[in-house]
Specification:
Oligomer: single chain
CATH superfamily: Bira Bifunctional Protein, Domain 2
Structural class: alpha/beta
CATH class: Alpha Beta
CATH architecture: 2-Layer Sandwich
Strand content: 15-25%
Radius of gyration: 17 Å
Strand order of the largest sheet: 7-8-9-10-6-2-1-11
CATH topology: BirA Bifunctional Protein, domain 2
Largest sheet: 8 strands, mixed
Order of helices and strands: EHEEHHEEEHHEEEEHHHEHH
Number of helices: 10
Number of domains: 1
Distance between the termini: 35 Å
Length: 247
């Protein structure tokens, strides 16, 4: 698997990179890739079908000049900010492999990611079982019963995109300020507020990236990413109000 650790200059470009890489692989030109990027500013990203008025505190975002974007995959709404780490996996769909269906791909990928993070927390894991890394809901990673990563998937015919955001050293108060309570929540959340539900891993991004790259065998840099298509998608889609405020 190839590795791309090349943050782009704008939120729109970072979001466009996921779709551009998926399209590139689907066209037959690209290779399985692990992408990393870290937010440089605060912005909100809704899932593809999310209704902004339902999920986002629009007034608070406007007051703080926090822009709102929409990604190409489903799942819930997230606040991107300094101290977060985003990863994206572009994987080939194999008929006789764990990637063959949404459910099996979720299980396979989440278990590998949990295993990678666990290698960074051996002392916490042995000292207190409540702090064990676990997969909860469909695609949440938790420390105990506190969520530190949400993930989502988008599938094409031959390749899938699986991506997520990990809270490492974020200002978690912004989540409550900028987001409403979600319209859909997993059972284990038990109607907890954002403050009661999320937590930081308090780990350096470089260590987390190294652990994920190792478990996915992403040990060679991607030499020829589709930069032109990323810029085009960012300009024509992810920067537009028509896309971002479509629901």
């Amino acid at each position: 698997m190839k590795l791309l650790d090349l943050p782009f200059s704008s939120p729109a470009e970072n979001l466009a990179a996921d779709e551009a890489l998926l399209d590139w692989c689907e066209s037959g030109d690209g290779e399985e890739t692990l992408l990393f990027w870290e937010p440089r500013e605060t912005f909100v990203v809704v899932g593809y079908a999310n209704k902004i008025a339902t999920e986002v505190n629009v007034a608070a975002c406007e007051q703080k000049n926090v822009p709102i974007f929409r990604r190409c995959s489903g799942g819930g709404t997230v606040v991107q900010m300094a101290g977060g780490l985003n990863y994206s996996l572009i994987l080939r769909i194999e008929e006789n492999d764990a990637t063959r269906s949404i459910t099996s791909a979720n299980k396979f990928i989440m278990e590998k990611n949990a295993e990678a993070i666990e290698t960074l927390l051996p002392k916490l894991k042995t000292q207190n079982s409540k702090l064990k890394i676990s997969v909860r809901g469909h695609t949440d990673l938790c420390l105990g019963d506190l969520k530190f990563a949400g993930n989502s998937q988008r599938r094409r015919k031959n390749f899938l995109l699986f991506h997520g955001t990990l809270l490492l050293n974020c200002d978690l108060s912004l989540v409550s300020e900028l987001l409403q309570m979600p319209s859909l929540e997993p059972d284990y959340r038990a109607n907890r507020s954002h403050e009661e539900f999320v937590t930081n891993l308090n780990l350096p991004a470089q260590k987390v990236k190294a652990a994920l790259a190792k478990i996915w065998n992403a040990n060679e840099d991607l030499k020829n990413p589709p930069l032109e298509n990323i810029s085009k998608l960012a300009l024509e889609k992810y920067s537009t109000r028509e896309w971002n405020f479509k629901f």
